[in-house]
Write a structure and sequence with these properties.
The longest helix is centred in the middle third of the chain and has 19 residues. The protein has 13 helices and 11 strands. 36% of the residues lie in helices and 14% in strands. A hairpin with a 5-residue loop joins β5 and β6. It has 310 residues and is α+β, with helices and mostly antiparallel strands. The strands form 4 sheets. The chain has a 4-stranded antiparallel β-sheet with strand order 1-2-7-4, with helices on both faces.
Length: 310
């Protein structure tokens, strides 16, 4: 068990993962209760899909009945801050490069194939942020990091600039210890959030979060929220930028897929408004920004320009 665990760790690093940890695949009792409470408060906003498959989110055995281990892999995606002008809409750092779903799935598949070569017949299930697995909970349990007061996973070496990928496997591994919370008395992320989206420490009201409003939300946005976008047209890094762990840890990613693209310095408002579908798809090819679609990006820009005018 120990030898196989170490072989998997070594192979994960060779593939390009920055971190890897293992946790026992078991029901999430306390975390499941917190999920119920979060949904009851309607903090998921219009993300109704989070209300589906609640049982699977609380228990990985509902996804893979014979699962014994949860393998959590992480990749550092940090790139230095890029200044932008007031005439340009800001893009969250996580979207500066290629779509992380594509990058991580490819690497997870390679790691899964390695596991199967070591244990023929092994059953593995791969997921990157699109299915009913609470990645951040498992990242904490697997020793990748702790959930900060803004609810994002923080690692002592890489801060919160990491993407997470999951493999459920029916192989028993040597499990890691959960990570100690290192936020201490710091409340900078809470204090700096312009929309007060962090309801209480460790509890995010996603319905007020600029990232949610500019990426996931569909429909009108109240003026008291949209006038606080601070020029963010896709995502928001405000709470991450202020975090002392991110200011202290600036390890630039060595993953070539995450090299910043031309739009990383921001996009002119008028360029977005005058863009057609073909131009949009070409500019954001294999980018997570395509998730928002052209119509959604234009709506984000109009909200900003309208509030500036007023």
């Amino acid at each position: 068990m120990t030898e196989l665990s170490e072989d998997i760790r070594a192979r994960a690093k060779d593939i390009g993962f920055s971190l890897i940890g293992f946790a026992n695949a078991e029901p999430l009792i306390n975390e499941g209760l917190k999920l119920d409470d979060w949904l009851d408060r309607k903090y998921n906003g219009t993300m109704r899909w989070l209300e589906k498959k609640k049982d699977e989110r609380k228990n990985p055995l509902k996804i893979m009945p014979y699962a014994k281990s949860v393998i959590v892999c992480a990749i550092n995606y940090y790139q230095p801050e890029i200044s932008t002008s007031n005439s340009k809409g800001k893009i969250s750092r996580y979207a500066w490069g290629a779509d992380y779903h594509t990058v991580l799935k490819s690497k997870l598949k390679e790691l899964s194939e390695f596991i199967s070569s070591k244990r023929p017949g092994a059953l593995n299930y791969i997921e990157v942020d699109t299915g009913p697995i609470m990645e951040k909970v498992w990242a904490h349990r697997a020793g990748i990091g702790w959930q900060g007061k803004h609810s994002i996973i923080i690692n002592q070496k890489y801060g919160s600039w990491i993407f997470l990928g999951i493999i459920l496997t029916d192989i028993e591994l040597r499990y890691d210890h959960s990570t100690q919370d290192m936020c201490g008395s710091c409340t900078l992320c809470i204090n700096v959030c312009p929309t007060n989206a962090i309801a209480t420490p460790y509890l995010l009201d996603a319905s007020k979060c600029i990232s949610y409003l500019t990426i996931e939300h569909r429909g009108e946005v109240s003026k008291d929220l949209s006038d606080k976008y601070d020029n963010w047209i896709y995502g928001c890094d405000i709470c991450q930028n202020i975090c002392p762990w991110n200011q202290k840890n600036t390890n630039i990613t060595d993953e070539p897929e995450f090299v910043p693209r031309e739009y990383s310095i921001g996009i002119e408002h008028e360029k977005i408004l005058s863009m057609n579908e073909t131009e949009f798809n070409k500019l954001f090819e294999n980018s997570p920004i395509k998730r928002r679609k052209l119509e959604g990006m234009q709506e984000n820009v109009r909200n900003i320009l309208q509030n500036k005018k007023e």
